[in-house]
User: Which sequence fits this backbone?
């Protein structure tokens, strides 16, 4: 039964890609409806798969020869680490495809866009389920390449140089991520030469990384995943990609695709890195903390709403990497929780930012004033998402940041305690800066008279019924995980203990 569930979780959205393309030949609206049905079906399938799967990898996964000559296997599995990310992914794609029913990009080709989004979903789910390094790489690429078309074809069309900006953002995204993937693959091959297998379950239980080859492999894998996370200073592709992508593209990129990097660090980097190495692990943690502070300072200087949210993602992913670099169960709990919380909250922020831009034709912060007076419900949702993102207690964003800082105070014994305590203090300062830029943004956009740079602004419609329907799951789960974090932390702890043999 597990084989049917796991294979179906990858195969269902892939099959609906074909159905959407066929339906699109008849009518665009029919194709979008089929895509929504596929996304809902995949969500229900993912819930069933998680319910019947063990919280730890117990051998009831799919493990078949794929490319026997190279010892590459079709090895899929689900545990408490990947399960929450799978559920978040399928939910986000339901919201994204549901939003296309009434808010499709004005450039046409909605059927093709829906098909590409389902293809991305299949690639992401395959990445979260893959337990073979090369299989993870293959699914990784399946998820990345369609995003180039989403950004280039359906991206922002405002301004005289819109086409050039779309092409530049899409190409930069693809070049950076593909180069990162190539480095990661070379690292996987080096691990294979040392461990004798691409199977990450066997590697996690038997591989003892030591020597220059093992160190080089861990460095290359870290570089590849750092590009996708993204970790400072390899983040420079992200702001342009977010500001140029359509709303659905920004939501998928922030909520889902960035998690391929953080999940890859947990599943495929931690087993091949040794915390006793004096430089590598503290260096990765240090870059994460630099990213937290840098992103907060960059947000304070931003003039475009989507770029500000994009830079905030760099900071939030810094907390994730800092947590997992502690090589503790608490660190993995913090990393997975922060990843899921970021997916829900930042996905909601990009939805709201897209709605604001659709209503007012601009995302420039200086031209947006008095939203409380003109669109009070939309302003309220934005305020909720901003407060969740800055880590307000009682909402999901709080636990990810606080648990990450706590884990940095108590790293695994092989790591330098003083260094990590210092990093924890600096990260806590980053929380203060995060609060500063979100509070300043709320004051600038939401309060004051209803004006823009060109004078008084015309009244605009408030949140529609479709928007409420699409956003409600993200709103509800942000609250639920904020008041009941144990729903997520318990399964992650069991999986981390079993898979990584952490204490």
Assistant:
């Amino acid at each position: 039964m597990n084989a049917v569930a796991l294979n179906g979780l990858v195969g269902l959205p892939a099959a609906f890609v074909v159905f959407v393309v066929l339906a699109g030949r008849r009518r665009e609206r029919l194709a979008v409806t089929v895509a929504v049905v596929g996304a809902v079906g995949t969500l229900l399938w993912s819930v069933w798969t998680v319910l019947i799967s063990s919280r730890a990898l117990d051998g009831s996964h799919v493990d078949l020869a794929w490319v026997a000559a190279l010892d590459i296997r079709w090895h899929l599995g689900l545990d408490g680490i990947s399960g929450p990310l799978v559920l978040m992914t399928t939910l986000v794609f339901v919201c994204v495809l549901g939003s296309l029913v009434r808010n499709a990009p004005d450039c046409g080709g909605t059927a093709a866009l829906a098909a590409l989004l389902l293809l991305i979903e299949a690639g992401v789910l395959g990445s979260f389920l893959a337990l073979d390094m090369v299989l993870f790489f293959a699914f990784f690429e399946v998820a990345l390449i369609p995003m180039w078309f989403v950004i280039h074809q359906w991206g922002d069309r405002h301004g005289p140089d819109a086409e050039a900006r779309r092409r530049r953002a899409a190409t930069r995204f693809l070049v950076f991520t593909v180069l990162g993937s190539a480095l990661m693959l070379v690292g996987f091959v080096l691990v294979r030469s040392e461990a004798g297998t691409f199977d990450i379950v066997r590697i996690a239980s038997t591989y003892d990384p030591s020597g220059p080859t093992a160190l080089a492999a861990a460095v290359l894998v870290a570089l590849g995943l750092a590009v996708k996370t993204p970790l400072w200073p390899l983040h420079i592709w992200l702001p342009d990609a977010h500001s140029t992508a359509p709303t659905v593209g920004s939501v998928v990129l922030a909520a889902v695709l960035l998690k391929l990097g953080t999940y890859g660090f947990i599943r495929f980097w931690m087993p091949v890195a040794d915390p006793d190495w004096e430089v590598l692990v503290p260096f990765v943690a240090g870059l994460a903390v630099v990213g937290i502070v840098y992103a907060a300072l960059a947000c304070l200087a931003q003039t475009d709403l989507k770029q500000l949210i994009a830079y905030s993602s760099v900071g939030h992913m810094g907390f994730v990497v800092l947590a997992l670099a502690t090589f503790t169960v608490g660190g993995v709990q913090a990393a997975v929780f922060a990843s899921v919380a970021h997916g829900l909250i930042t996905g909601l922020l990009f939805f709201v930012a897209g709605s604001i831009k659709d209503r007012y034709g601009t995302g420039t912060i200086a031209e947006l004033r008095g939203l409380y007076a003109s669109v009070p419900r939309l302003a309220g949702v934005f305020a909720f998402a901003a407060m969740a993102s800055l880590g307000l207690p009682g909402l999901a964003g709080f636990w990810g940041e606080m648990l990450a800082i706590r884990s940095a105070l108590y790293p695994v014994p092989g790591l330098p305690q003083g260094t990590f305590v210092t990093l924890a203090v600096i990260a806590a300062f980053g929380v203060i800066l995060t609060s500063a830029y979100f509070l300043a943004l709320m004051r600038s956009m939401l309060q004051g008279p209803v004006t823009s740079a060109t004078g008084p602004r015309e009244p605009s419609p408030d949140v529609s019924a479709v928007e409420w329907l699409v956003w409600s799951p993200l709103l509800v789960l942000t609250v639920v995980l904020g008041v009941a974090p144990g729903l997520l932390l318990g399964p992650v702890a069991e999986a981390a203990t079993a898979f990584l043999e952490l204490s």
In short: The chain has a mean pLDDT of 85. Strands lie at 62-67, 72-76, 451-452, 455-456. The chain is about 75% helix and 5% strand.
